[in-house]
Amino acid sequence: MINAIYPGSFDPVTNGHLDVIKRSAGLVDRLIVGVLNNNAKSPLFSVDERVKILQEVTKDLKNVEVKSFSGLLVDFAKENDVHVIIRGLRAVTDFEYELAMAQTNRVINPEVETFFMATSLKYAYLSSSTVKEVAKFGGKLDDLVPPYVIPLIREKYKK
Ligand code: PNS
User: Fold this and answer.
1) Cis peptide before 12 (omega within 30 of 0)
2) pTM for the predicted model, two decimal places
3) How remote is the CA of residue 73 from the centroid of ligand 1, in Å?
4) Which residue, among 105, 21, 106, has the nearest Cα to 66 in the 3D structure?
């Protein structure tokens, strides 16, 4: 039985995240999408909103569960009896940060391994920050995020 965690901020979830979630869920028995509750950042969506959005957009994936976490990722993994972390890699620009994070996590808890999944080419440019930038200026979001998320983002920028 392979349990894995796909962690992130998901502020908001993008089509690139969803692609990694779907492909990872096809490889493991149980996938936990771990939503970071980071008080230091001021997110567009609260952690509860992000969890709810992710639950909605993954509702057809029966082996996917969405949970929030705070503190260290490896502690969250241990609490959930998970030894596999999955992270998407878009380009070489992601690599240094991701490698350092994976190595740090391994030093803290050598029982947890990080696996990198190459992002699909069509989402290689996409990030939550890009989505927010486009949304801020009223740009088209159709190819960037799941349809369910679009009105929720629009609502945030209306305020
Ligand atoms: O979507 P993001 O913001 O790139 O995800 C980053 C995330 C949530 C995976 C990372 O910040 C994280 O794991 N934070 C929890 C604290 C932690 O365990 N850090 C790793 C040791 S440096």
Assistant:
1) yes
2) 0.97
3) 7
4) 21
**How many whole angstroms from 25 Cα to the centroid of ligand 1?**
20
- Residue 17 a catalytic site member: yes
Atom number in ligand 1 closest to CA 101: 22
- Beta strands 84-89 and 113-118: pairing type? parallel
Task: Please name which of 3, 2, 17 lies closest in space to residue 127, comparing C-alpha atoms.
Answer: 17
Chain center to CA of 28 = 16
Cα distance between residue 59 and residue 32, in whole Å: 13
Per-residue pLDDT of the chain (159 residues; tens, 9 = 90+): 999 999 999 999 999 999 999 999 999 999 999 999 987 779 999 999 999 999 999 999 999 999 999 999 999 999 999 999 999 999 998 999 999 999 999 999 999 999 999 999 999 999 999 999 999 999 999 999 999 999 999 999 997
Domain 3-124 = CATH 3.40.50.1820: no
Range list of H helices, the chain: 15-25, 47-57, 73-79, 92-108, 128-136, 149-158
Is residue 23 among the annotated active site residues? no
